[in-house]
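User: Here's a chain of 113 residues. Predict its fold as tokens.
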Amino acid sequence: MEVAEWGVKDLYSIPNVHYKDIHVDGTGTSVVSARVAGTATFDNVDARNVGAVGINNCGTFHFTPAGSEFPFFGSGTDGGGTTGPWFASWELPNTITCDDHPPIVAPPPPSAW
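Assistant: Prediction complete.
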């Protein structure tokens, strides 16, 4: 989660976060959630058994016509779950996919990659 406390969300940002060579298995909801301004890149991040939309992007909750204040960029991402690929093209670079109460989906038992 990329989050700033509500009272200071417009004062701070979390820019240039980088995730690389990660496996995510059985999130129950999303792979990543943004509740702040900033940016993140994903390189070779594979996810499976994702229970909700892969990126839950609310940004700073201003919902501007330009999109979220937290754009995500990536390459080499793979996998997904109940809603399709976790890093779907319609989530890039800053589409608002904000859902504060996604249904939780119980992941399957662990298995080998």
